[in-house]
Design a protein that fits this description.
Elements (H helix, E strand, L loop, with lengths): L1 E2 L2 E2 H36 L4 E9 L2 E8 L5 H16 L4 E6 L4 H20 L2 H14 L4 E6 L3 E8 L2 E8 L13
Helix pairs in contact: 1-2, 3-4
C-alpha cells in the first residue's frame, strides 16, 4: 500500500521500532540510574531488611521494611537523603514497614490524643513525657516521640516487635515528601 509514493507499512514498522527502542532505553536507564543505585544504597544500611520501588503517577514510591533501629528520625533522614541524592529533587514517597502487633497498634491509638495535642499546641516536651509514661504503663521496652521540623517520629518497642509512625507536623502538600507505615 502506497500513499504519495511512500510505503505506509514500512513507515509504520519503522515508527513502531523507534518507539520500542526509545521505551526500552528509558526502561534500561531507569533500572541502571535509579533503581539499582537506590537498592544498593539501602542494602548498605543495616536496619533495612527489604526495599522495593514502584513508579506512580505522583512520583517514585519507595517501600522500606526496617528492622529495629536505635533512632527512627536519624534512620529516616538518612534514607530520605540517599533518595534525594539519587533522584536529584524528583518527587518521591517513602513508606516504612515495621513489625507491629495488634497490641502495639492499640498502644499507639491510646497515645494518639497526646500526640495530636502536642502537634497542635507545640508542647512537645509534655507530649514526649506522656508517650513515655503511657508506654511504661503498657509494659513497652521503648516508647518515644522525637520531633523535627517536618514530623513527629513515634517508636514503640515491645520485645522483638516494633511500630514506627511518622506524623506530619503540617498538612502534606503534593510537593512534599511523605513517609509512614
Amino acid at each position: 500500500m502506497r500513499a504519495y509514493g511512500v510505503r505506509i507499512p514500512v513507515v509504520l514498522m519503522a515508527m513502531a521500532g523507534a518507539l520500542l527502542l526509545l521505551f526500552g532505553a528509558q526502561f534500561v536507564y531507569n533500572r541502571q540510574a535509579v533503581d539499582q543505585p537506590l537498592v544498593s544504597i539501602y542494602h548498605n544500611v543495616p536496619a533495612v531488611k527489604h526495599v522495593s520501588l514502584q513508579n506512580t503517577p505522583s512520583g517514585l514510591q519507595v517501600d522500606v521494611r526496617l528492622g529495629l533501629v536505635p533512632n527512627l528520625r536519624e534512620t529516616y533522614m538518612a534514607l530520605e537523603n540517599q533518595v534525594n541524592a539519587v533522584l536529584g529533587g524528583a518527587h518521591f514517597q517513602i513508606n516504612l514497614t515495621d513489625a507491629r502487633t495488634p497490641a502495639l497498634l492499640n498502644d499507639f491509638y491510646k497515645m494518639n490524643g497526646a500526640l495530636e495535642q502536642g502537634i497542635a499546641t507545640g508542647q512537645f516536651v509534655a507530649m514526649e513525657q506522656q508517650v513515655q509514661a503511657m508506654g511504661a504503663k503498657d509494659g513497652l521496652s521503648q516508647a518515644s516521640a522525637i520531633v523535627d521540623n517536618h514530623y513527629v517520629y513515634v517508636e514503640l518497642v515491645q520485645g522483638k516487635h516494633y511500630l514506627y509512625e511518622l506524623l506530619p507536623r503540617q498538612p502534606l502538600t503534593a510537593a512534599t515528601t511523605a513517609g509512614g507505615a
